[in-house]
């Protein structure tokens, strides 16, 4: 049965080969009409057997996954990704170290591969990321002053121009704010003064005027935190001074020991959305290592936390999508020992599918969150 429906869907894809492309174009300025249904109306409950993308479509949201080209050799990886998700973020393939490893020498091939995959499967692409202090090419770290600024603007322009028309949303600047709410001390870009952020957005907009441009950061879920306040001040000022910024990305690599509640997250998302910004949960994962209890209890808690985070997004009209940061527990960055430590003791089993690509309770949590009625 599943095979037959797969055969049917490839036929449909074949017949309408242009559809993904048209969809991708249509979604660029208005990623999803999140506000189209009247507030106060409950979203349709998910039907049993829904894929994640079907459940997301019912509530006019996008459900995304971060993918890495090096896992495509496992046949189940692209197959499950295309079946369940309708948005794709390259996990590393569009980062500076990959795209421009030497000054003026560009390698877009891995990113192009993911874009082609997304287009073939009617998935939106979130570009990630143009300006970030991590995974930067080594040569950039040796620059300062005008040379650094010119390199940054050239990188933003060339990358956004290469992907012009193909990226629905760019994370233009990633993680520019420190825990104290000020500009990040360990970023080379901070030496340029905060004007570098506005300049990066302007350059991205000039190179691809159709893409929605996002500022993206982590640990900003609670407005009580100085970092959340600092990020708010930053994007408010950008917006008020006419900089082309359209959205705020909440990474949602939340620490299990400091999870925001549904109410807290909803309030924070509403506060940022009131600036006239779209909101996306861009890198959601839920590490269970530090959640007390048996494995079964941890997975049940993971499901509930996921439902609440996804539900908080769905409760905010301008929150247009949720992306999980990886496909299965085995492919999660938190499966790697160097990153696992960030979230305390593992194993973190942070995603919606297990090592063998089987759905976990967390997947049901995503569906339940997508099905929560709107405010
Ligand atoms: C991570 C990737 O998942 C890893 O494969 C890589 O080794 C390090 O970066 N915040 C971000 C993402 O914005 O780009 C990071 O991705 C995770 C934290």
From the alpha-carbon coordinates, what is the Rg to the nearest angstrom?
20 Å
What strand order characterises the main sheet?
A: 1-2-3-4-5-6-7-8
- Largest beta-sheet details: 8 strands, parallel, barrel
> How many strand segments?
8
Which structural class do the helices and strands define?
A: alpha/beta
Q: Which strand-content bin applies to the residues?
A: 5-15%
Mean pLDDT across residues: 90
Cofactors and ligands present?
Answer: (3S,4R)-3-hydroxy-2-oxopiperidin-4-yl beta-D-xylopyranoside
Shape annotation: globular
Distance between the termini: 38 Å
State the order of secondary-structure elements, H for helix, E for strand: HHHEHEHHEHHEHEHEHEHEHH
Q: What would you note in describing this structure?
A:
The chain is of the alpha/beta class and 375 residues long. The protein has helices spanning 2-15, 19-29, 52-58, 76-84, 96-99, 109-120, 138-141, 145-162, 195-207, 226-240, 262-273, 295-314, 337-340, 361-371, and strands at 62-67, 87-90, 124-131, 169-174, 212-217, 247-250, 278-284, 319-324. Strands 1-2-3-4-5-6-7-8 form an 8-stranded parallel β-barrel, surrounded by 7 helices. The longest helix has 20 residues, at 295-314. The two termini are 38 Å apart. (3S,4R)-3-hydroxy-2-oxopiperidin-4-yl beta-D-xylopyranoside binds next to loops.
Give the topology, please.
Layout lengths: L1 H14 L3 H11 L22 H7 L3 E6 L8 H9 L2 E4 L5 H4 L9 H12 L3 E8 L6 H4 L3 H18 L6 E6 L20 H13 L4 E6 L8 H15 L6 E4 L11 H12 L4 E7 L10 H20 L4 E6 L12 H4 L20 H11 L4
Parallel strand pairs: 1-2, 1-8, 2-3, 3-4, 4-5, 5-6, 6-7, 7-8
Helix pairs in contact: 3-14, 8-9, 11-12, 12-14
Bound molecules: (3S,4R)-3-hydroxy-2-oxopiperidin-4-yl beta-D-xylopyranoside.
The site of (3S,4R)-3-hydroxy-2-oxopiperidin-4-yl beta-D-xylopyranoside has 7 residues, from loops.
């Amino acid at each position: 049965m599943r095979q037959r429906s797969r055969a049917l869907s490839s036929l449909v894809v074949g017949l309408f080969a242009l559809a993904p492309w048209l969809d991708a174009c249509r979604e660029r300025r208005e990623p999803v009409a999140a506000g189209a249904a009247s507030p106060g109306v409950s979203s349709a409950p998910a039907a049993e057997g829904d894929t994640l993308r079907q459940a997301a479509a019912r509530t006019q949201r996008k459900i995304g996954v971060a993918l890495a080209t090096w896992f495509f050799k496992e046949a189940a990886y692209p197959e499950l990704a295309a079946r369940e998700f309708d948005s794709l973020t390259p996990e590393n393939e569009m980062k500076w170290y990959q795209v421009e490893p030497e000054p003026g020498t560009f390698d877009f091939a891995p990113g192009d591969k993911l874009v082609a995959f997304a287009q073939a499967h009617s998935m939106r692409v979130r570009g990630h990321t143009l300006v970030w202090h991590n995974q930067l090419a080594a040569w950039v770290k040796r620059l300062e002053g005008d040379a650094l600024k010119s390199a940054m603007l050239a990188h933003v322009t060339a990358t956004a121009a290469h992907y012009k028309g193909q990226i629905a949303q760019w994370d233009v600047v990633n993680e520019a704010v420190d825990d104290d709410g000020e500009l990040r001390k360990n970023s080379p870009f901070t030496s340029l003064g905060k004007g570098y952020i506005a300049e990066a957005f302007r350059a991205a907009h000039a190179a691809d005027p159709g893409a929605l441009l996002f500022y993206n950061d982590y640990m900003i879920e609670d407005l009580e935190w100085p970092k959340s306040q600092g990020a708010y001040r930053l994007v408010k000022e950008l917006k008020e001074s006419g900089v082309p910024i359209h959205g705020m990305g909440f990474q949602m690599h939340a620490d299990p020991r400091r999870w925001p509640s549904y109410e807290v997250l909803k309030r924070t998302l509403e506060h940022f959305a009131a600036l006239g910004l779209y909101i996306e949960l861009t890198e959601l994962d839920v590490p269970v290592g530090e959640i007390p209890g048996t494995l079964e209890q941890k997975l049940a808690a993971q499901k509930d936390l996921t439902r609440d985070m996804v539900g908080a997004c769905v409760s905010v009209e301008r929150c247009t999508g949720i992306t999980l940061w990886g496909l299965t527990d085995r492919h999660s960055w938190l499966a790697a020992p160097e990153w696992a430590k960030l979230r305390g003791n593992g194993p973190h089993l942070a995603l919606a599918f297990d090592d063998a690509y089987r759905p976990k309770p967390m997947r049901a949590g995503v569906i339940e969150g997508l099905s929560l009625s709107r405010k």
